[in-house]
Structures are given as C-alpha cells and as structure tokens.
Write a structure and sequence with these properties.
The structure is a single chain. The chain is α/β, with parallel strands linked by helices. Helix content is about 45%, strand content about 15%.
C-alpha cells in the first residue's frame, strides 16, 4: 500500500524479534530503514536480507544502554538517509528480578535499556524533526506488564511504566509540532529474545511455546509480524491525528475478572 513511501524509519533494537519484523514491514511499505543492535552479525544479516528484497537499509551498531549511543543512532541515520521521519523504540531487557532480590545494578540496567535509551533517542529524533520544521511519528514498544505485571518483573515494570508515562508526556509536549508519539503495550510474543528468557529463567523446554499457547485465550502467542503491521499503521498517515495513545495489544483484558 506504500504507507511509508520515502519515509526514513529508525528502528532501535531492530536486529531481531519485533524490531526486525518492524524493519521488514516498513521496507515493504516503501520506507528507507536504519536498524540498531549491539551485535553486528544479526544486524548486518538483516540489512542484507532487506537490501536483497529491493529495500534501502543500513545497520547502526549501538549499545543503547549508553545514552550517547542512543542519541548517536539518530545522527548516524541522518548521515545515511538525510533525516529521521519515524522512530521505533523496540529494544527491551526482560531479565528477571523481584522487589526483594533486585540489585541496584540490575535495576539500573533496566532503566538504561527500557527507559533512558528511548528517552534520549526520542530527544535526538524530535530535535531533527524540529530543525526541519517537519512532522514525524514515534512508536514506543512497551508491554502490557507496565500496568502491574508479575512479581518477578519488578525492575522491568518500573522502567516500562516510566516509558508509558514518557510517551504521553512527549506526545503532549510536541502535539503542536505535528509530531505524533504513541505506544503499544504488547502481550506475550514469540520472539528469539523471549525464547532465550524462558530457557534461562524458567527452565523451559523446546515445547514452551505450545504450553504457553494452550493457556492463552486465542490459543497462540502474539507474532512479531502482527505487531509490526500495527506499528507501521501508527507510523503512517493512515492513523490520522492519533497521538499520546498507549494501546494494549494483548489478548487479556485489563481489569477483566473471572
């Protein structure tokens, strides 16, 4: 449909999982893409795939735990493509910790990846948009756990709940600049990162996806490509004037009780 024709889309945390799916969907809709990641090999492999499919994409190696590298991801995208029209913050750290056993170091890691990195990437992207007096769109991939979450996700929830508030704050601040900022609170999703987390922290076997799906209302986990389509819609003009919305992209209903 060409929803993002000639738009420059930066996907932070875009070398795998939901971020990689967003990069593929954006290319399919006509965008020029930059993806970031800590590991060069998967990032460059994704860019090679996108380029082979006829898209224009670059990989930017960045450790988003470093605020300066988060900001630099925007600068490198501008150097490669001339500007940033759209930003997607999809990087996430999901390592476990409760209120009682979370160390200051683990807490700081969650804040760095799940809150500080999006903050400073948004800061740089909005500054680029303002310098050109151009509209833009930002989508933050958050989590349904930001509403409260499980006890073993305490630092994750703290950081992501902050990102939910930041999304609304930034959207309000820049609504008259025609910069639309929205978020998605995604539910349980089948990604490479989730597979690693289940195996590392929950002793999951090869059939964990099937076991998880059997407990969910729709009988399956969310899929990255489904989320990516929703993100592309929010990035595009087809989502109209919507800004400051944090949408629960989940199959469990917040506040519903049996």
């Amino acid at each position: 449909m060409g929803l993002l024709d000639d738009k420059v889309v930066l996907v932070n945390g875009g070398s795998q999982g939901v971020g990689a799916a967003v990069a593929r969907a954006a290319i399919a809709e006509g965008a020029l893409v930059a993806v970031t990641g800590r590991r060069r090999e998967p990032g460059e492999a994704l860019v090679a795939e996108l380029t082979a499919a006829g898209g224009k994409a670059v990989f930017v190696r960045a450790d988003l735990a470093d605020a300066e590298q988060a900001r630099a991801s925007v600068a490198e995208t501008v150097a490669a493509h001339g500007r940033v029209d759209c930003l997607v913050n999809s990087a996430g750290l999901t390592s476990r910790g409760t209120l009682l056993d979370t160390s200051p170091e683990l807490f700081d890691q969650h804040i760095a990846i799940n809150l500080r990195a999006p903050f400073f990437a948004m800061q740089a992207a909005v500054a680029d948009m303002l310098s050109r007096e151009a509209p833009g769109t930002i989508v933050n991939v958050i989590t349904s756990s930001a509403h409260g979450g499980q006890p073993f996700l305490a630092p994750y929830v703290a950081a992501k709940a902050g990102l939910m508030g930041l999304t609304r704050n930034a959207a309000h601040a820049h609504r008259f600049d025609r910069i639309r900022i929205n978020g998605l609170n995604i539910g349980w999703t089948a990604t490479e990162g989730e597979d690693a987390t289940q195996r590392a922290f929950h002793d999951a076997g090869d059939d964990w996806r099937e076991q998880a799906a059997a407990r969910l209302p729709m009988g399956r986990l969310g899929q990255p490509d489904e989320i990516a389509d929703f993100v592309v819609l929010l990035l595009s003009d087809r989502s109209g004037v919507v800004t400051g919305s944090v949408i629960d992209w989940d199959q469990n209903v917040l506040g519903g009780l049996d």
